[in-house]
Design goal:
This protein is an alpha/beta fold and about 325 residues long. It is about 35% helix and about 20% strand. The chain has helices at about 55-65, 80-95, 145-150, 155-170, 190-200, 210-215, 220-230, 270-285, 290-295, 300-320; strands at about 30-35, 40-45, 50-55, 70-75, 95-100, 110-115, 120-125, 140-145, 175, 205-210, 235-240, 245-250, 255.
Length: about 325
């Protein structure tokens, strides 16, 4: 796939621009995001030229957290090419530090997102994720994983080892956004057992109703969530698009949040920004680092409602503009 000219966009600066100042590695408790960063080439139905934006589910979660004022480290699988420079600049502009070990790929991954008349996106990927062993910073208080990198050949084992180490040591809170991509993942019968290995190491799990339907062949949502909570997570969130989102906790709380009504330009990155906002609110409640898992299990109903409300607000801003372009804290 050739690299089209990059647009002028605050989330994906042109590679020919002066590079953003590179953030320093945080020396305080921070979110450590492990997974893909890639270029979304946005191809709209209106015939306008395709536009490239920095994206990828874990990357979008990282920049959401950075824009909400949280210190973030991203460990990805990139190359130092034109697309890689877009990601470097986009991350720097949002205060996200990318590890040096992230730059080991032959080329930066990309995905062509075709936007339908209703704003929904479908994807074709040029992607691989096979990073070296991940060195987890000692100050990582939240470890986030998700989507295609967590299921990729060569990537799954690395991701699983990382979160197993964190889970066994109770050194950080693990969040997992399943964010299934059927065109890049093995059949559900093969993928589901891998997903459940990661669920068993996670404290917070998010997925969409479409993810759940694909993975389980249409299992009852409530019954499936109860089964997954028995694997160990303290919280599971299921997003339902225009129907909002539902949240369950291992302590017995169940809550629903209606979707925010507003303009929709496209849905690229909406679920990722929703996930980032969940982490942001949990962080505010002290769900971070050693002791975070215990704190997560003690959340009360009003706090659960605040988690969903904040996530819905952040996602509503994201869908109101092109590409995966989550809001800054001052926009909320």
């Amino acid at each position: 796939m050739s690299n089209p000219a990059a647009p002028t966009n605050p989330q994906a600066p042109q590679a020919t621009q002066a590079p953003q100042a590179t953030p320093s590695a945080p020396d305080a408790p921070h979110a450590f995001v492990l997974g893909e960063a890639l270029i979304d080439v946005i191809d709209k139905a209106d015939g306008t030229p395709p536009q490239p934006y920095a994206g990828g589910s874990p990357y979008n979660v990282a920049i959401t957290l950075g824009r909400l004022g949280r210190p973030v480290v991203l460990s990805a699988n990139l190359a130092r090419d034109d697309f890689g420079q877009l990601i470097i600049d986009g991350a720097a502009a949002s205060g996200v530090y990318i590890t040096d070990s992230s730059f080991a790929a032959a080329r930066t991954p990309s995905a062509t997102a075709s936007i339908g008349a209703d704003g929904a996106a479908s994807y074709v990927f040029d992607f691989s994720f096979d990073p070296p062993t991940v060195a987890l910073p000692p100050q990582a208080g939240i470890v986030h994983i998700g989507s295609i990198s967590a299921m990729a050949a060569g990537g799954f084992d690395t991701v699983l080892r990382t979160v197993q180490t964190v889970h066994d040591a109770s050194s950080a809170v693990v969040t997992y956004d399943i964010n299934a991509r059927p065109s890049l993942m093995e059949a559900p019968a093969v993928t589901l057992p891998k997903v459940e290995q990661l669920i068993a190491c996670a404290d917070v799990v998010k997925l969409s109703d479409e993810d759940l339907d694909w993975l389980t062949g249409g299992a009852d949502v409530d019954a499936q969530v109860i089964r997954w909570l028995d694997l160990g997570p303290q919280m599971i969130v299921v997003t339902r698009g225009a129907q909002g989102a539902d949240l369950w906790t291992a302590s017995g709380i169940a809550a629903h949040q209606d979707a925010r009504v507003g303009p929709v330009v496209d849905t690229v990155g909406a679920g990722d920004s929703f996930m980032g906002a969940i982490i942001d609110t949990l962080w505010s409640f002290g769900v971070i680092a050693e002791g975070g898992r215990e704190q997560l299990g003690q959340l009360y109903r009003d706090q659960v409602g605040a988690i969903l409300d904040h996530a819905a607000e952040v996602a509503a801003v994201t869908v109101s503009r092109a590409g995966a372009n989550p809001p800054w804290s001052h926009e909320l």
